[in-house]
Write a structure and sequence with these properties.
mainly alpha; 7 helices; 179 residues
Amino acid sequence: MRRVKIKEWLEIVGMAAIVASLLFVGLQIRQDHKIALMESAGSDSSINAQLADLLQGNGELWRKSLDGEELSKAEQIEFYTMARAVEYIYISSWRRATLLDEGGGFSADAAIRDYSIAIYFHVGLRRHFDARIARVTRNDMAFDVPVEVGPFDRSIIKRLEYLAANPMPIPENKDYMFW
């Protein structure tokens, strides 16, 4: 009889150990998944370093472009390259915040708001954004498929519509490094 009780207790302990190990494996998989998502979203420091390299020596072009001044075709190409890199920083921050969605820290909506304000304040950045959306629209229409703008762009468009309906003054001294 005593052996039966010991066997029952050992079976209970064994089952508890199995459950605990499954919980541990589940937590480890969850942590590994988050790490993989973080790595796939890109490293802010490497993206910022690449952007610094791209902008180096092009500060006047960057300022002129953001202010909406007339650009040559070559300058437009250079500016759109720089603007796309800045946009990628916001998209990466938004994507990472969306995937991790842990509350606290930088939220996905903060990335949307920050980039929307940058577009609103800078005529050239607005031209870049509108041109990219027009290209997506044109390409989808060429293939007779519904126009498909991604969730990041849809959120930006909504924020820009809000800003158009609720205008705010554009600062006299704009910030040209807004990321």
